[in-house]
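hey so i finaly got around to running the thing on TMM8A factor from Mionectes macconnelli. pasting the sequence first so u can double check i didnt mess up the copy paste, my clipboard has been acting weird all day
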Amino acid sequence: SLYVSEYFSQSAQKLSFYSWYGNAKVFHFRVPEDTVLLRWLLQASRGKGPECTSMEIMVHFRHGAPPVINPLGTAFPANATVRPSYSISIALSSAVQNTTFVNVTTPAAGDWFIAAHLPEAAGRIEVKGFSTPCPYMFQADMFVLRLTDMPVLEPGVPTPHTVVSPAKPLHVKVFVPKHATGMRFQLQSCLTSDQKACAVRVVLGSITLPQSFQKILTCTGSANCSLALDSPPWEKWLQIMVESLGTANASVSVEMLASFTVCRPGSASSFLNFISLNQSQAGARPGTTGAGGNSAQAAGEAPRNTSGQRSSCLQSQPVVREDLDVVSVRYRLLNGPSVPVNSLSPTLLLLNLNTGMDSGGSLVVSLLLNKTSVSLANATVVGCVSAASPVLSLNATRNCSTAFSQGYPLSVSTASAEAMLIVLYPQTDDWFLSLQLLCPKGQGECPSAEAKVTVFAYLTPCFNDCGPYGQCSLLRRHGYLYAACSCKAGWGGWSCTDDTKAQSIGAQNLATLLLTLSNLMFLPAIAVAVYRYYLVEASVYTYTMFFSTFYHACDQPGVAVMCIMDYDTLQYCDFLGSVVSVWVTILCMARVKKILKYVLFILGTLLIAMSLQLDRRGVWNMMGPCLFALVIMIAAWVHHGTKRRHCYPSSWKRWVFYLLPGITLAFIAISVYAFMETNENYYYTHSIWHVLVACSVAFLLPPRDKHKKPWAWSKKLTCRYQICQNDREELYAVT
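ok and heres what it spat out for the 3d tokens, dont ask me to read them lol
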């Protein structure tokens, strides 16, 4: 046998602390056919700075779809099926780098996914630029060992093979045909090279993490050894590995036989279904009256044709896959949403999810029993949703499992007529829905009974669109797309249905009121600015108060939300107003010439608008204008002090009662904003930030110019009688 090794690599990704599925970094690989050994090379590293501490990285594996993980221990939505992923942890303690190998023998071909993340996020809101987070990097590489000329077993034909040694097992494969209800594997003869009784172990199937359903058969002696399997995977290659359990220098000769039991499905003619599909899509078009009549006749003949084929092993219902959007598919039954279900043979529906881009959503299957259609009391319609192959023996075992996978059971009855199943991240494959009518014992009319079940099946990116307290986000890793829910207002879970830590309606209203009404503290600053004739500054404060109020009213995670315009526009205007307010306040304190002050106002505002467009959350967008304005202010104060030959401002009352309180409030506000905000206390710490900043502005604004008189509204209003003084100079003639 000729083995070929292949190597696949992807670029390293920076890991994040986990708060929702978007924080997990996903790696997508594709394992080729006839792979006998798969080895993952996992490399984790961290930075060398003092901020880097010991860390544990969680890594999850799954075949066919991204891993379904729950690091936070939250609840999944009702009717959702959850099977844990295969997980390992990689520790980064004293070592800067850690390399881990994971080996998988006889892996299943197709898509394999790896998800890696750091522990739960602390919830602290970090201002970009104030702290340097430690970089934790993770990279996954894949090595595969593939057999180029794997022998093929022909069904029904005994085939001799030789196991050279225990260190070199024999790998063969057999193709499973469609509609195969069972498979039987036989080891007819087994002899060693020294004519002794042999001992071999036969492994059927491939490993699929997180759960592996390989079948192991141990054969000793020369007697026949066999294994029967129900519902093998349709239209796939089944890998078989034979290992010798004897001595190291003895070869083993075996003769293997694989046989299949294939049933004859009963369904409406594909030609009739095609005509029915064309008629349903075309509608009543002009000039198609005759075709429409034929289509209606064909659609009416389909149920009669199906009911006449109850002698077959299954009744197949035609299903059309309708792609709606990215990771969004609807399945439509050609013969109507209701399907007939009887007790003699299962009714089968094919749900095609093998495009390679369907595993990033949620498969939803809903059943609704028509109670009037069930003639027998206490009858139950059982169903099974399975991948790769259907379950065709529901009436005998009631076990929703196939040869190499475990399905998802469903049932409806007259007592409970509705049932729903949610499969999170369904694996890439052909999925089947099997339905069959089960009757209580002693019911003689059961063979002739029939039930009508309405089936709704669709693939959606996020179940229920993440509900009212979540947002469905479409994530991308290279060309692969998958969806996840980002929850808010304390809600959690896969679909934002876990209300363990959810905020009440009262808490949401309180948060909205605090964050919005705290901006009214700018009113004193606006009044002071207007009183002292700083009208441009007052306009900037009014702008900041208005957009900060409505931005926080729109930014709320719960139901107390009001958006007067686009969210991004409100956020940009809020950030712009905040930085410009600081800019004009410090320049106003500098007491420079008016023409220079207004030039700096306009030029600084334009530069701030540009920098916020580049990086809205960068710390230097606020610190840069502040520092530059402080430099201008200090230079202006030094110039004034040098010119007057004493400290500027010269009044100690100005320092004690205005400047020092304003500076203290500003420093406290910066400390709260940069170091104290978390996701839990955001609504009141950020409200404190609003109050402190607004109060500091009111204290820091300088007094009005001496040559300007206070506002005297009575003198400004001229709509009254007044005594006018004639200031005209009197000229007298000298005689």
